[in-house]
Amino acid sequence: MNVYDFDNTIYDGETLVDFTVYYIKTNPHIWKYIPKLLYIYFKDTFHLFTVEEAIKTYAGFLEGYYIKLDNIEKDVIKFWDKNEKKIKPWYDAVRCDDDIIVSGTIDVLLDEIMKRMGIKNYVGSSIDKKTGKFKRLCFLENKVTIFNELYPDAHIDNFYTDSMNDKAMMDIADHVYFVRGDKIEQIK
Predict the structure, then answer these.
(1) Of 33, 67, 153, 166, which is least surrounded by CB within 10 A?
(2) Ramachandran angles phi, psi of 47, nearest 5°
């Protein structure tokens, strides 16, 4: 079976960053969070987070902003109407029905695009919509823990990713492919 990371692997960008940019353009209340978002982006880009730090940092933003949104479901649909085109064409050419997507992206964003793509097997980070607190952070070594809990009998033949943040997932796959843009290189 093939397992894929989502952001910068199948999707050309970081979903949460793009979703935040969507809100910067449509909701000026997010502007006060821009310094914190830049800090998060920097730490994430340079792989400077531990799981615990990521939970604390992201949760502060989610609790402060996302839970206050009235129409997040409608906004997610509008967001994907605009950004669905950022799904990389190579994935459609290799896609199989038993593919599993394992992503750090929050489920409120993943649910819509997975439905549109016809992907039945996926897991992402999950937040409580009322409190903004993480129920599950699918990041770093937590990806393996969550993957094994949800798919205990799955064997990963091929794993596709764009980041060494997924080293734990790479370790349990037979073959690993590193994705940069539309270029795919086998590294294991």
Answers:
(1) 153
(2) 55, 45
